[in-house]
Amino acid sequence: MSKHLKLTTPVKDNSLKGYYAGFVSRFMALVIDIIVLSLIMLVFHASVAIVLNFFNINVDALLKSTNQFTTIAALIFLIINLIVSIFVWVFYFVGAWVLVGQTVGKRILGLRVTSVDGNLITFKQGLFRYAGYWLSALPLLLGFLWVLVDDKRRAWHDKLAHTCVIYSWDARRGPWLQRKLLEAQAIEAGKHKEEARQAALKQIDQAADEFTGSQTKKRLPG
Questions:
Q1: Are residues 116 and 219 in the same domain?
Q2: What is the residue range of 208's domain?
Q3: Does residue 2 belong to any structural domain of this protein?
């Protein structure tokens, strides 16, 4: 199968019908996301620095201080700063994938992350996918490059989280989802019909019981 065919292989039996995204567009989207996150973190650290300077606090000086209390305070500050930074990175990716299926970079490039069934991914899938980024990056980015050889253009982190990336310009409800919706509507309509039938039978039984009771009373001797 040629690379061109792989690049435009349609997503089959998915809630969202589209085409699997190729390596170049996914890589460019990731570069844009890293730039956006770098700007966010730059603003965050600059804001923290302004606050520290306002109160004449020098973290480096506190770390070198012989006072145990000030040293511990500086370490706690650095740990909190690290935790906040990690949270921002995780929330940026996982939150965007779970809520709308697109980060800023993917939206600009017209990409969308979906579950293999075409739906938005769950929070658990998002965490697995983010953790899978590191798995894909560690062996010389081999996990990311796997997109070039995989028929469904899935990287290692996609396989780990059971996700795929499609072009959003052709992401629409496919025949599979429409068929499922029609089946669900038919089942629901059938339930209503069955409920109506049961209610009618119940009324008939009640009417029959009342009629039988009235006839019995008429036959009883006065």
A1: no
A2: 175-222
A3: no
Compute CA distances 32 → 25, 39, 116, 170, whole Å.
11, 11, 25, 22
How many Å apart are CA 70 and CA 65, to the nearest integer?
7
Which of 158, 173, 188 represents a domain boundary (last residue)?
173
Q: Are 13 and 175 in contact (CB under 8 A)?
A: no
What is the pairing mode between strands 16-17 and 172-173?
antiparallel
Residues sharing a CB contact under 8 Å with residue 32, sequence separation 6 or more, in sequence order: 104, 105, 108, 109
pLDDT digits (tens, 9 = 90+) for 49-83: 888 888 888 877 777 777 777 778 788 888 988 99
Do 17 and 80 sit in the same domain of this protein? yes
Could you say which DSSP state residue 112 is in? E
In whole angstroms, give the CA distance from residue 114 to residue 137: 21
Please choose, from the candidates 144, 179, 175, 181, the residue with its C-alpha nearest in 3D space to the C-alpha of residue 10: 175
Dihedral angle over CA of 215, 217, 218, 222, nearest 10: 170
Residue 5: what pLDDT?
35
Contact status, residue 165 vs residue 26, Cβ threshold 8 Å? yes
- 50 and 94 in a single domain? The answer is yes
Intervals of the chain under pLDDT 70:
1-18, 170-185, 207-222
Q: Is the pTM of this model over 0.90?
A: no
